[in-house]
Write a structure and sequence with these properties.
It contains two helices and nine strands. It is mainly beta. The mean pLDDT is 81.
């Protein structure tokens, strides 16, 4: 019995130290790679965002679901964590001023589907009026969003965009 336990303990230590499993595709922590910088595309809208598209008494587009977030200045970190039934996208950003609240990862596409294999989100938050800039550590925000396996089915790349940069990670 002592020999069996000793042999199991030694083999466990040897396998964990070699790092072979850590770098393999079998390890669920390696299903998405490290975040890498990506170019930022600026939106060139032809419509005025201040004019509502549908108004009226019987309109289904009421202001109760309106989100007035603005893009965060930069994205500094992007981590994808696998969970049962999907993944958690966790993004860290640095805002241009202190006091950002209601931070969200909003999908770029309307149906939250992958376009050409890329699932894109925008890092947005609502700024407080009249707040100072402050040190970068006081302007840091962290937000997470859970996505299902159905959403990830067509995605080979997950991209998070900010005002001045974007990060993406590939499977």
């Amino acid at each position: 019995m002592r020999k069996t336990v000793s042999a199991l303990l030694v083999s466990t230590l040897v396998l964990s130290a070699c790092g072979g499993f850590r770098d393999s595709r079998v390890n669920p922590f390696n299903w998405f790679g490290r975040a890498e910088p990506a170019p930022v595309t600026l939106a060139n809208e032809e419509t005025n965002p201040l004019i509502p598209t549908r108004t009226g008494l019987f309109s289904s587009n009421r202001n109760r679901d309106a989100y007035f977030g603005q893009p965060i200045d930069t994205v500094s970190d992007l981590v994808i964590e696998r969970v049962p039934g999907g993944a958690i996208i966790r993004a860290t950003g640095v805002a241009s001023v202190q006091g950002i609240y209601d931070v969200r990862l909003t999908p770029v596409s309307d149906q939250e589907t992958a376009v050409d294999g890329v699932l894109s989100y925008r890092l947005e938050g609502v700024p407080r009026v009249g707040t100072p800039q402050g040190a970068p550590a006081t302007r840091e925000v962290i937000v997470a969003r859970k996505v299902t396996d159905q959403t990830l089915a067509g995605a080979r790349t997950i991209r998070v965009e900010a005002e001045r940069n974007a990060l993406q990670t590939r499977r």
